[in-house]
Amino acid sequence: MKPELHLFILWEKARRVESRILEDLARQKDIAVVGKWELSFPGPAAEAFPAFYGRRKPVDGRLKARKCGCGAFLLVVVRNLNPTYGSRWARDDKYYQANELMYDLKTRYREWAGRKHRVHGTTDCDEFARDVFLLTGHTADEWERGVPDGIRVNIPARADWRLVVDGAGADMGLSACRVLLENKYVNDVFFEGKFKGRDVVVKCSSKCAWSIGNEFRLASRLRAAAPSVVPEPLAEWRSEDGRRAFVVTERISGPSLTELLARGVTDAQADGFAADIRALAEALKREGILHRDLFSDNLLLGSDGHLKAIDWQLAIDRADYHEDPWVAQSWKFRYVVFGVNRELGLGVWNDFHALGKVLALLPQTAAVKDAAAWLAAEAPQMTFAAPPDGLTRFKLRLYALSLRVQMFFNRNRPAKHARLQRRWRTIAGPHAGRL
User: Fold this and answer.
1) Together in a domain, 132 and 165
2) Cβ distance 59 to 158 under 8 Å?
3) Are 203 and 190 in contact (CB under 8 A)?
4) How far apart are CA 142 and CA 169, in angstroms?
5) 371 and 303 fall within a common domain
6) Is 412 exposed, middle or buried (0-12, 13-18, 19+ CB in 10 A)?
7) Which tens digits make up the pLDDT trace of 370-408?
8) Is residue 277 located within the same domain as residue 324?
9) Which of 1, 207, 220, 290 has its CA 20 to 30 A from that of 99?
């Protein structure tokens, strides 16, 4: 395997063994230290820790700060010159494929620090890409090309967004905003509040700020074309430096279709939902827009009884395709199909296929079957493909091969095998020819 970049973070309370760890890294024949930087959080550590760790599960920032320390910490970026992977026991009490040397070093350094919470380390390329971007704002590709200039912590503290929302947002008419939820991989934080008296959700982003404007434009267009199935976008804001943005959208307080399906959907409800799904699909076709993330979680029930399609951040205009720079730098986001589309294969973004999968979850009434038949007939016309470049195609072939190997070694573990198989289908089939 080719060399890999990884990182270690020695939080403040691990720095008592800092010299010992750095000496040990220097002795590793398969490790080259790219660089080390002393950094500090720009805001309260209790708010920054959830922003960094919260992608997997909720994190108590105050508890994390007590265990790890709130002061300056050390970031160490290394290159593993000869990576090997094996099965390791880790998060969520499950085995996973990890870089063996990095896993072993992380375990050792955590023992030296006294508590495992005090040292953070990456054990696969995806984790490095995610963590180094969350921490520094620079992508893994940028780090591969060389050490970026001006390394600093890029995690926006929740308090920072509070100032923005209470400042720029208040000037626009926002009030009574409070944190609703956080999505660390794409967005920083969501607020709920009031906008000129209306209940709204404010989506804030500093990782792909351009796409906030994209969400406002395309959602507004679809709202005009099909007002019953799209929440109303009300306002947008973007900082002068282009690094921060938020969009204000009417809040849909009803449950998602996923929740409705868990409770049980009647035939009458299914007929109404089928009509909504067809209306949404017809509007997408008329406007030449692809949502790219349509599945039951992103269809919410409005107070008027209609399903509303939310989360237009990564939608595209087929006539004027323009990808968010952050998405373009993240090949998994750019080339792997979103949502329920993941079974369709690489590079094929087709909302009609995705909505057909949603219809298959509903009671199969005559109206549902008619809508599904219409979607199936129209689907080929709505296909949009952005084939990967040569290097990415080669990487994905290797990734698909590694998944097949993992499937072989996990053939006696049905649940694990099924997960690997779903991931392999995403990369290699049924449109493997596109690779």
Assistant:
1) no
2) no
3) yes
4) 33
5) yes
6) exposed
7) 999 999 999 888 877 665 566 666 776 787 888 889 999
8) yes
9) 207
